[in-house]
Amino acid sequence: MLTTLRRIVLEFSQDPKLQSALLRMVSQVKKAMNTDCCSVYLADYEKQNFILMASDGLAEDSLGHTTIGFSEGLVGLVGQREEPLNIADAKFHPHFKHIPEVQEDELNAFLGTPIIHRRKVLGILIIQQKEARNFTENEEAFLVTLAAQLAMVLVNAEARGILGQNQDNGKWLKQLTGVPGAPGVAMGNIVVSQPKADLDSVSLQKVYASAEQLKRYNQAVARTRADFADMSVKLGNIISDASLDIFEVYKQLLDTANLGKDVTSKINSGWSAESALKLVIDIYIVKFESIEDSYLRERASDIRDLGNRVLFNLQQQTRVDESLPDEFILAAQDVTASMLAEYQHLGLKGIISLSGSNNSHAAILSRALGLPAIMGVESVPLAQLHQQLAIVDGYSGDLFIAPDETLKREYQHLIAEEDALTVKVQQVVDLPAITQDGKAIELLLNAGLSTGFEHSLHSGAVGIGLYRTEIPFMNRSCFPSEQEQTLWYRHVLSAFPKQTVTMRTLDVGGDKSLPYFPIVEENPFLGWRGIRITLDHPEIFLLQVRAMIKANHGQNNLEIMLPMISSVSEVDDAIRLINQAYYELSSELPEHEGKLPRPRIGIMLEVPGVIFQLKELSRRVDFFSVGSNDLTQYLLAVDRNNSRVASLYDAYHPAVLRALKTIADESGKHMVPLSLCGELASDPAGAILLLAMGYDKLSMNPHNVARIKWVIRHIDFQRAKVILAHALSLETAKQVHGYLNEQLEQVGLGGFVRAGM
Length: 757
Known about the structure:
With 757 residues, this protein is of the alpha/beta class.
């Protein structure tokens, strides 16, 4: 029976036309289960009914025409109850509805089961028999199993446009769903971008002309480096945070000490430049794609993009100017950072990437540019998207293809509101973040290493609340030296004179490993990571801390933050090492250079267990900083990058809000300054709650600083406390969202209610 089931599902998934797929499937099920009839109804939520799409046993003329309301008949009852219904003689059931045109008068036994995907009933699968009897447990189990497997196949069929091809009104295919990559809403025609050069199309060839091939390769590399420098300059005039690092990474990889060394070796062994490049890039891609960490896995996309760029210049192709509409949405199998650099000044309004996640550099860049983005929209034929009108909802991850007039008007209104809001909030960018009744809070930046920090000073932030030091570690073939790290950190600290820069010590581990320091674990999120690794390897920790302290000499604006703290002993051990590094450097410093400033030390609160040790921790550190993204993941046991459970990840879950309030209360009691870095700080409603809880600082992407500052400046602190008190009394995240949206409307901040909430 298992073999039969697999064959039915496989053949269904391979048929390009829905109607023929459904007809074949019902005939196969009828034969496999030896019944007199098998039928399938699909749900139409717009009309609130089920439509009979295929049957082997009912009247052919009724297919595609007969409908049953969601609350009508046995079909509707199966949908309402969301469970199988096994009836010996259907005609005597109180919910039975006689429909003459289907010609089922001779059929008595009825077994129906819902086809459900992510809590949504997609349709009903039914078998019927003339003999009045209850179907057996095995028959019921088979039908339920088949329906469960059909659910995913139906969703993929919908994504491929199969459903749309079979409806005259074209209303089956309306909404696809991906992973929210960057917030915002955009509407426009889709422009599909295909790679201008593709390493997959390169045929391996040996030419044994190493000198000539090396010359070609080096010339292509030089042109590619110039391309990336140009892209970086163009984007640097618009944004300036860590998202630009990718172009520096590309240029570093092209150095002879990295990727270039391997390509040169292949060329010297007789391969053509194109073949050598393909061989090396393929090896890099395989290595990255085999890494469990989602961030590092996304680097395979960057390597592929880099290889295609070099190939483009190797082949000396001429760039052809595309005919683009004034405004458009970019779609590609894998939207890359360099694609965004090419298109962002040509009317780009949003992006759709069939692969990738919110960790991809395209998503990171999109957030920095303020472009709505949806990642991981799977099972869609890319060519079918070209020139289609689409709505991209980067808040919810919803993608609407060929929307109707009602939906277009709704989103046009939202887009107009967002555009007006973006202009309006710039009025307060240089003003302090202070409520109407005088309560102040500091807004800071989340950042990594970037050559454009100077421009971030114009974002309205008053410093860096989270500087991720692991990024430059990831883009190397070995650990960086103390001198290299000192130069990096001094560049950052000097870019923010007289403003605090909080540097987080190396935060890698089983879920975010380094290529040259591999870690394989069955459960990396609960494994060897963050402070656990650096304490086990004091030589790495001491080197980094020494570099930070040296870089801070003459600046005196450094704070050191320890990640993934789960116990008091970890803090004691880390502080001992920091003190060791400080005293070593103090003794090495010449007297005429003055006293070495000692940085303040803080910890990240992201492991739920530390909530119950805040009293003890407060005696040891100078500040606390909540990592709300990880804290939410750990509190709710949800991997937000897992599409099957991502909907359960919600920072407004009552448990998360109450945990954040407890942290704020304990920090206030022990007089420890408290900040928060995470997506909650970037959301207007979240910022209001955190303000009311007593958080001193909020750290976020530069793009969001002005928006949050506007919200803070247009609310009373006392009103915020009232809102918080009621929000904490609610029982579900849905209730919290609804209440907060109402409150934002009441205080005149309704324009900040994000789309799709």
